């Protein structure tokens, strides 16, 4: 018993000493980490101080008298004021800002009420022209904010603010000019263009979808996975016969059904109520009929929205083989839908923030898409040149736009819509040479 008691006392003493040793080691490690962190903060403070002193010395030093031509070696402040404003050629304006010099200054004048800032006692405000140039450079190239910051001699946060402010200003001030419902004359002109250039009569617009690649959002990321598997924001656009946008709905997750977007959009309500036809209905095949829109196979068939007949695929097709008039109708509508495909391709080629992965937040991307559509319409209306090389770059670099599942006959299809589609089949059969 006495030996057991001594052994128990010895074990207790050893346990205590081990616990005390462990506590001492933990305390020593904590003190060592705190000392290291203190030294790091101390060193960072002096590095930052030395950096500020070096920047002040550079800013106060005498500029070199050596003049070099490449823009990359031109001081940033001098680059904007001397190179861009005085030495840029018409091709330079088109390459860098995707518009002519005249259109650029027209845009600046239109946005001045929203973008002009007052000078303060601490700093001079950026001119409106420079703010617009910074934002357009970003939309056209989709390069990093840091690169644009160095190029224009402004802070990275200033670049971000310029992009955000300009996009909001464009939507607020220019939507009523360049993105609005068409009047009766514009409807008639668009119908003439669809007939003469695309071979489809009695049509005023084509509806299509646009997927814009985004970075992974913080919430509900799976909702943004489109049918091709990559993350995107989905937009719905209506394109006129001139290749310009009449209506744009942005901000939907890439996995959203296009039919749901259309059915809940203002375009659906306007078209269903006859808002895309004149008060006196035009005559088609001897009957008064509203103008129609053309849509992809993922949309429901309506009396005002035509789409292709479903093609038979495989032995288990749930519908009969197409007749020759139906196949002819499909060929004509597929040809006419090229107007929306080409308009979206020109849009993405001119403003490559829509063709490459956009690293802006979801609170900015929808406004950016709207702004780019408005800028597209403005440039097209002003007759600004479009370089084929931009289009080649986009086709080679971007991921193909996802194709949506064909929507077969459902309860969403409107009664009498099939009768209207048959009228077009009869028309094409009669005029097929």
UniProtKB/TrEMBL annotation:
Q: Which domain of life is it from?
A: Eukaryota
Q: Which residues form the DUF8040 domain?
A: 90-171
Identify one Gene Ontology CC term for this UniProt entry: nucleus
Every copy of the DDE Tnp4 domain together lies at: 209-377
Instruction: Say where the protein is mainly found.
Output: nucleus
Q: Which Pfam families does UniProt cross-reference here?
A: DDE_Tnp_4 (PF13359), DUF8040 (PF26138)
Q: From the Swiss-Prot or TrEMBL record, what is one GO molecular function term?
A: metal ion binding
What is its cofactor?
Answer: a divalent metal cation
Question: What InterPro entries does the entry give?
Answer: DUF8040, HARBI1-like, HARBI1_dom
Keywords assigned: Hydrolase, Metal-binding, Nuclease, Nucleus
Q: Where is this chain's protein located in or outside the cell?
A: Nucleus
Q: Which family does it belong to?
A: Belongs to the HARBI1 family.
Protein's UniProt name: Putative nuclease HARBI1
